[in-house]
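Box 3.1 A note on notation
Throughout this textbook, protein chains are presented in two layers. The first layer is the amino acid sequence; the second is a token string describing backbone geometry. Keep the layers aligned when reading.
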Amino acid sequence: MFVSFSGGIEHWATICGALVSPVALIGATVADKKIRSAIVNELMAWYTQFPFPEYQPAGLNLPKVAVGSTLCHVSATTWANVAKVSTSSKAKKQRCGGLSGDVAKKTVQMLNAWKDTGTFAATHKPNPIVATCMDCHVDNEPYTQGKENCMQCHGDKLINIKKSEAHEGLF
């Protein structure tokens, strides 16, 4: 059912496929919208900060890299650049397998913690630059939506588009 999410949905490199099943599981398990949202937001923020892959079968010694994004193309490319391998390499595929195990483990830990206590407390937050950007861009043009750190990939382009006083400290 979820096989097409590999490669960020049939190699479109959008959302990391390792997040899709856990988010669906959380949605199917947690009825309370506020708690469900908190758990999903925690998973997404954790993913951007966790040095993957922690899970590595015997014999593997892959570099562990926090990639800063839930987007497949950012995650895979950032890791591959650090590992100095191609994104089509066996090592990258092993990394994604380990990462999938790490995400599943984190999801189960969060759901168990919520089920044990009936509440959920997030510990991870999106990159602070997101709040800074969204202070202006939610109600002012150009409108945007999201919780990813857009500066990670688009910072140079944003500098060239608009270098104003409001943006000075960000670049």
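The chain has seven helices and no strands. The first helix runs from residue 6 to 9.
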